[in-house]
Every structure is written in structure tokens, then in C-alpha cells.
Amino acid sequence: MEIQEMVMEVLARLPLKSIARFRSTSKGWKDLIDSDIFRDYFISRNSSSSISWSIIQTTQPHNLTLEIIGHHGCKTWGLTRSPGSLMSFFVERAIKKLQVLACTDGLVLLYAEATDGTPMYYVGNPLFQEWFQIPLPPFLSLQDLEILRTYDRLNDSGLVTKMQSGIVVSYKVVWLIRTKLELFVPTKDKVDLVIYSSDTGTWETRHVTCLNTLFWFMKHKSIALNGIVHWIYGFTSNFVAHDFYGGHHDDRWSGFVNFPDRGVEELSRFRRTITTSEGSIVYFNEFTENGNRTLRVWRLVKYISGPEAWELSWDVSLEPLIELGTDYFPVVMHPLNSEVIYLWSTNEEMLILYNLRTHEFRLHEETADDSNKCMDDCILSFNGCSEYMQMHNMAALPNGITELLFSQYVLPRWMQRLPRPQPN
Q1: Residues 299, 313 contacting (CB under 8 angstroms)
Q2: What is the CA radius of gyration of the chain?
Q3: Which residues, 6 or more positions from 135, have their beta carbon under 8 angstroms from its beta carbon?
Q4: Is residue 232 within 8 Å of residue 259, measured between CB atoms?
């Protein structure tokens, strides 16, 4: 084995936090670490290693660092604090509103509102504290912005990325936007998408046919995966999706998808959650049928409105948890392991980690130290979980509708930098 191969082997055993330090010591180390050969070798060698991640609330402004669930101490990065603590952010002018809008592939989209009402958007890489202010679309007047602010539509945004060799090479910020008051009347069938690209540093407008005009009267939450943005809106039984890197430039949505439990709502507890896990959109809900409580988990496989859009991954009895006498509901699925789901116990105020395959579960109580070890040997923290659940009134009646909407901030498997538009 040559010396360079030996060095690569040793380096690849270290966490990225340590590798980043070596990178700054000399040009030789930097050239080796920045090489495609070492990056690909590190990602391949550590493809099954644990990664730090957090669940960040996106429904309330002013509370930027409300981390619902966090993992740190994982092997790939070796962080000694939770990823949610990296969400530090500073602006040069006074602001009255600050909110996380979306987290995608290690990048974060923030919305800030100045004291005079001026909207500001930032895309950042919290790991390296890189932030870039997105310019406002030049074709929007001050009157247009005031209309959007009045109707609280400035945060109907999405962040979607393009990946190459496991790193982000470009991103797009997408607004669902209307610029005239009369267009809020549900007689129009067009949705206006305003898109900013990091490749060009410019905005474009795309008009897309909307099959459900009630779409415009709902609050929206976006989830991005594989270049596709999924918009979940209100308490409806479906969502829409659009591919922004697939080469589609027509006026149709890429998909209009019904939730898989549509039509059997009378059996469910309406604790619906939609998120990502192992590279797929997953949806889960709890059902009660003939006195039996089960958890069903689906994976999105097609962007169509029929039942073939979903594949049932798990249909698991929750009797072991019922025997504990706890009232609980599903919160989130592990973003990197679709066998592990997180549930919240309302009466115990504890987090339950449940393995859907083995039926093994662990109860975790909030602690101020690092004593909470989860199933992947990372350190589990959820000091903001109780506040978040109380905020969403999880003790509602069984037939009350409750949706859990948040963003998954998952650290990348490599030291990617924030893509920036090339100067003219």
C-alpha cells in the first residue's frame, strides 16, 4: 500500500469535524481532502455510519432554535452538540420576525421580516456558518409585497437542491405567489411559481395549472426530495408536487397525490405525519379497527392520484405500548432508518423509540446531560419536544385533526459548501 493510500485510509476513519481541521493545516492536506477520490472513498466507507440530525419546528416565528428532536455525537461528524444549536443567525438590521421555512440536504431557508415590513430571505449552510441573502424578485412592486405580507403568503416557500456525488451543487428557492388581490378569489386555476436559481442568480416565473382551487386558502408546508417539492396544505387529504430539476417546463403539476388513508378516515386518529426516511416520502397514521390499534406506514412510489401511489411498508400492532398504559402518537420516522419511529407519550411526557421490525421500544425522559443514547448510539435530545406538543394540543379528542409539520435538518455525508451564483 502506497503512503497516500495509507493516509487516506487513516483519514477516512476520522469524523468529518477532525478532517476539516486537517484540511486547514497545509495545501497538501487540503488538496488530498478536496480530491474527488478521497471524497468518494470517505462517503463509500462511511455510508452506513450514523449522521447527526434534528427536527426543527417551522410553524412559529421568532423561535428560530426550537429543536423538537436532535441527535449528536454520531460517528460521521463527531459533533458534541445538537445540530439545532448550529442555527445561529445574524442580520445587520432590526427584525421583528424570523422563521425557518425549509431544510434540505444540509441547507436551510430562512425568512426574516424587518421592523418596517421588508421581507428578507436567506439560504445557508449552518455547519460552516455560510449565509446568502436571496434578492427579492425585481418584478414585484412594493404594493405586491404588501399584499403578500397582508395575506401571510411570504412564507409559502420551498427549497430544492441538485446533488452530484453526494454533495449539493445548486439549489432553487420557490415561492407560491399571487401578486393581485383578485387572484385570491377561487375562480382561477393557475398557480404562480416564482423560482430563484443559484446557478443564474436570477428569478423566473412559471404558471402551473392547479386542480384544486382551495389550495390558495390553506397554509402550506413544503418537503423537498430528489429535486421535487411537495406542498402539504391545510387539513386536506392530498398534496401537490412539482419536479424542478427534471426538465419539465410545462404548466402541469408533476403530481397530485391523495393520502393513502383517504376514504377510511373514520378509522384513523388523524395524527397524520408526512416526512422523509431513507430517501423516500413516508406517511403514517394510527388506526383503530375492531378495538385494535395499529400503526400503518406508507412509502410514496408514484406521483399519481390513485392508491397505486403508495406502498404499504408497515402495518404494526401497537399492543405492546398499550399495555404500558400510555397515550401516545407518532411524531417522526428516523430519516436514515425506516424501521425506527418516534412516538410521544402525552401522560408521561416521554419520547418512545419503537423498532417496527423487532417491536423493541425504549422510553426516553428529557435530561440536561448526554445520558440519552438512542438505537444508533447517537445522543438524543428533545428539550423542545414537550413545548411543541403542547403548542399543537396533542391531547385533543381522538377524532380531532392534528398534523405535525416540521423540517428535518440532516447533516450531509461530506463537507459541502454553499453554492453561490457566479459574478457577472
Answers
A1: yes
A2: 22
A3: 196, 201
A4: no
**Is 163 within a domain?**
yes
- Structurally, how many domains does the chain consist of? 2
| DSSP letter for each residue of 15-83 | -HHHHHHHHTT-HHHHHHHHSHHHHHHHHHHTTTS---EEEEE-SSSS-TT-EEEEEES-TTT--SS-G
Share of the chain above pLDDT 90, in %: 14
Highest mean pLDDT among 200-209, 210-219, 262-271: 200-209
- In the chain, how long is the greatest CA-to-CA distance? 71
* CA-based nearest residue to 343, from 334, 401, 280, 56: 334
Which residue is listed with cell 439549489?
A: 171
Torsion over CA: 346, 104, 208, 135 (sign): positive
At 124 the pLDDT is: 92
Alpha-carbon distance of 219 to 153, in angstroms, equals: 8
Q: Please return the burial class of 223, using the count of CB atoms within 10 Å of its CB with bins 0-12, 13-18 and 19+.
A: buried
Average pLDDT over residues 379-398: 64
Helix (H, G, I), strand (E, B) or coil at 217: helix
SS3 label, residue 384: coil
State the first-to-last Cα distance of the chain, in angstroms, to the nearest integer: 46
Sheet-wide strand order for 95-104? 95-104, 107-114, 119-125, 130-134
Residue 420 is assigned to a structural domain of this protein = no
Name which of 95, 94, 97, 125 is nearest 109 in CA terms: 125
CA 150 to each of CA 10, 113, 169, 181, 241: distance values in angstroms, whole numbers, following the listed order: 56, 13, 35, 10, 26
Kindly state whether residues 206 and 334 are assigned to the same domain. yes
Q: At 157, is the pLDDT very low, low, confident or very high (cuts 50, 70, 90)?
A: confident
Domain that holds residue 15: 3-45
Q: Are residues 317 and 184 in the same domain?
A: yes
Would you state the cell numbers that stand for residue 35, as one nine-digit string? 480530491
pLDDT at 56: 79
Count of other CB atoms within 10 angstroms of residue 143: 11
How many other C-beta atoms lie within 10 A of the C-beta of residue 413? 20
Quote the pLDDT of residue 133. Answer: 92
For residue 380, name the pLDDT band (cuts at 50, 70, 90).
confident
Is residue 40 located within the same domain as residue 71? no
Q: What is the mean pLDDT of the chain?
A: 78
Residue 241's CB: how many other CB atoms inside 10 A? 21
